[in-house]
């Protein structure tokens, strides 16, 4: 986020005490985490990133190193750790990192599996190139000042062959009506101003940027939130919320593609 985003910073800082209230202002965040965490786990296993002998156990992602970008108070970071990942959570807001750290310090499992840092992804990428098997960004892309640099920085932190998962709001008329108007302004189940619709990307645009940074899209799934059941659920289109899963091309894959292009010419 840029320095000009003072209002957004104030909004997020103000939520620190209520970050873990599952029925509070962040109900959609909690419910979407419950939906996407098993999806992320299954794709990591399917991609062969997790150890084969761990895949059927209680902590199937043992030994997988993950980075959560924009971890806030740690909702998704904790879920990843409980599935076995060794997770680094970073966020630009110190008050939220403090909430996440407080929780981790009182849980023996989290204490060993999780580390948190107040840092932007743009800064983190400069010193942590090709460090992680998995990078996850859950409702953070739409807050970034520059989406290109944000995605590029996430990609930099990923090992070749690693997986990136980005959850965000699509930039469509439907998302403005169904998320900004209905859920932020009318039902108020999302804090007003939480999603800056002008900074959102459609799934296609997101794929283009990923591609530009050597990240090949494998799948995109749409989802939405049911206000009455307080649950998130998968939908067929990616016009509201969506999660995109991409893989960083390994060097051999790039060489293969270049050779194929040369042979065509
Ligand atoms: C909606 S919260 C997401 C919470 C979290 N992912 C979860 O699942 O609980 C978005 C977070 O992204 C953080 N953020 C925004 N831009 C960032 C950046 N460039 N680098 C790191 N964190 C950033 C914000 O401070 C905010 O806490």
Main beta sheet, described?
8 strands, mixed
Strand order of the largest sheet: 3-2-1-4-5-8-6-7
Task: Report the span from N to C terminus.
Answer: 44 Å
Question: What's the helical proportion of residues?
Answer: 40-55%
Small molecules bound in the structure, each named once = S-adenosylmethionine
- CATH superfamily grouping: Vaccinia Virus protein VP39
Uncertain runs are none
CATH class: Alpha Beta
Q: Give the tally of β-strands.
A: 8
Give the percentage of residues in beta strands. Answer: 15-25%
Q: Looking at CATH, which topology would you report? A: Rossmann fold
Shape: globular
Number of domains: 1
Q: How many helices in DSSP terms?
A: 10
Tell me the structural class: alpha/beta
Radius of gyration: 18 Å
- The CATH architecture assignment turns out to be 3-Layer(aba) Sandwich
User: How much is the average pLDDT?
Assistant: 93
């Amino acid at each position: 986020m840029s320095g000009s985003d003072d209002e957004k910073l104030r909004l997020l800082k103000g939520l620190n005490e209520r970050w873990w209230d599952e029925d509070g202002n962040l109900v959609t965040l909690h419910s979407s985490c419950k939906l996407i965490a098993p999806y992320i786990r299954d794709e990591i296993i399917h991609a062969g990133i997790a150890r084969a002998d761990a895949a059927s156990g209680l902590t199937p992602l043992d030994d997988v190193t993950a980075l959560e970008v924009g971890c806030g108070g740690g909702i998704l970071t904790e879920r990843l750790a409980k599935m076995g990942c060794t997770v680094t959570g970073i966020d630009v807001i110190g008050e939220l990192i403090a909430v996440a750290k407080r929780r981790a310090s009182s849980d023996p499992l989290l204490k060993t599996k999780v580390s948190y840092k107040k840092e932007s992804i743009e800064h983190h990428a400069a010193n942590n190139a090709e460090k992680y098997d998995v990078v996850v960004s859950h409702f953070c892309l739409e807050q970034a000042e520059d989406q290109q640099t944000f995605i590029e920085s996430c990609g930099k932190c990923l090992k070749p062959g690693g997986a990136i998962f980005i959850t965000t709001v699509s930039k469509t008329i439907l998302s403005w009506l169904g998320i900004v108007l209905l859920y932020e302004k009318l039902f108020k189940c999302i804090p007003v101003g939480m999603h800056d619709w002008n900074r959102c990307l459609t799934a296609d645009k997101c794929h283009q940027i990923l591609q530009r940074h050597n990240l090949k899209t494998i799948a995109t799934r749409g989802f939405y939130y049911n206000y009455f059941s307080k649950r998130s659920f998968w939908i067929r289109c990616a016009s509201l919320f969506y999660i995109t899963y991409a893989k960083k091309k390994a060097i051999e894959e790039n060489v293969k593609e270049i050779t194929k292009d040369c042979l065509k010419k």
